[in-house]
Amino acid sequence: MGTRIPSHQLSSGLYVSGRPEQLKERQPTMASRAVPYTGGDIKKSGELGKMFAIPVLDSKSDAPPTPKPSRPSSSSQHNSGPVRSGPNSGPLGKHSGSGPIPKKSSGPMPLQPTGLITSGPIGSGPLGSSGGVGRRSGNLEQSSSTGKVTYGSSVTSLDDEVKVGFRVSKAVVWVFLVVVAMALLVGVFLVVAVKKAVILVVVAAVIVPVVVLALWNCALGRRGLLGFVKRYPDAELRGAIDGQYVKVTGVVTCGSIPLESSYQRVPRCVYVSTELYEYKGWGGKSANAKHRCFSWGSRHSEKYVSDFYISDFQSGLRALVKAGYGAKVAPFVEPATAVDVTKENRELSPNFLHWLADRNLSSDDRVMRLKEGYIKEGSTVSVMGVVRRHDNVLMIVPSPEPVSTGCQWARCLLPMYVEGLILVGDENQNADVVPV
Question: Less Cβ crowding at N or C end of the chain, within 10 Å?
């Protein structure tokens, strides 16, 4: 006996097999409303404002908002939500790395006008309008209290003078002095014993030329070095090999960090120097520990140089001169007098007084002279260094060993040595520059 298949009739009158479908209860849907645009106003942001006890505006009522009473301090407050004021607070419970925020019930938390929650009063961060002077591009910074510009590690600060001298060991110097002293003693003894002055004349004829030669080299050593640099032939960068010591003459352009002179504010320089000198008379004040009477002494010095580019006149190629990041550089740039304070003219300009105040230098009755030198972008300079090629980048770096000028017999100059990258600028720094 077969089983009967159940069937049912649809609303259209058609019979179909199977049992009629049971209608399921439809789940009630929750009504949702569009979130209003707050425009950055924390009072319109709903629950976020309630968490910080800030009066919230209700869009359905025109009544003035009533502040929410502060939450009671209980044991359940430590685990009540993500914003806590206890020791187990989350990311919003920190206060700029100085520990958790202590519990407060006297007022709301200060917020930025944009609605951004920060850890500090308004205006204390980089977006605050009441802060001081912000950072400049590169590694250039300026203090908010003074106008003195400071640079980062990418700019070389040249505190010491250029190290130029003779490479003679101290042992040789002491042996020479001992020989001279013994020769004088022997000459004096023979003059007394033999009673002939010709012996003393012979000794003096040997010693005096040596002393004069040493004094001549000490006085004209720097000029001899500049003459050596000018006579050194210019090299062509196109044919220079890696590790070759070359001299390149061309137009310079600034690197990533252009410099600015501190007093005259000359922009876009590759080298700047500002030096304050004072004259010391009999019993006057000394500018430094080595200041002698009746001479000029350096009281304050600022010298900076950074990486720059030089375009070779011979081949037209451009090379990167690595003078920054603490490199050894020997600049030969003649500075010009910017301020001259004499006994007759003691009236100081406001700019000079402001420059002295920024560096905590006194402006009392002193004979002062401010000299400033610089190499502007577009100037013609000569650079002597070692060629380096790295990943198709042509660079000129300081020589690892001191460079010798060799004997200059025509000028009676002994070999002199200089350390670092040699940088020689034009004698007239105010000359017309090439636009770049």
Answer: N
